[in-house]
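Fold this sequence, please.
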Amino acid sequence: MARRDQHRRSSARRTEVRLDTPKGMRGPFVPRFSSDNDRMGRFSEAFARGMGTPWFLVGMSLFVVVWLSYNSLAPVTAQFDPRALNFTLLTLILSLQASYAAPMILLAQNRQDDRDRVQIEQDRQRAERNLADTEYLAREVVALRLAMKDVATKDFMRSELRALLDELEHRDDENTEQAEAAAQDDITRNAREQ
């Protein structure tokens, strides 16, 4: 029963694909297997990172030393890669490892180059923004300096205030003299009237 339902669904999908629909709207005749490039890239970076450690070199060296020692010192009937055949199996294993390691390392380097390229572009954009901000601030400082030339300075304000104070004192003296003269006139007039 489940097979019939599955068959109906797959046949329904097949009937949905029509040749008169635009190519972008219909599915492919042959299913495509999606390759997850990011997963493979992460794997290759981890692989290259692992191969670049001192522990990998120490482990690989120990593996080769044990391999060579066993196949050199063990009885001929117990050797699986005899010295007489120049360690053919070891050579094959190391060649196979190298043939896979080189492309993985190149793939990891390509991913790193892509990241570096993106980082360089971001740094360039950041530098352009900083330059624009710096130029803007420089223009503002120049505008402030020009505006400050029109602003009254402390010495100018002091001289103006002194001039106003002198003028007020002069008026005060004149007012005092006029008040004294008016008082004197009043006294003289009062004295005449009496």
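The chain has two domains: 39-150, 156-183. The radius of gyration is 49 Å.
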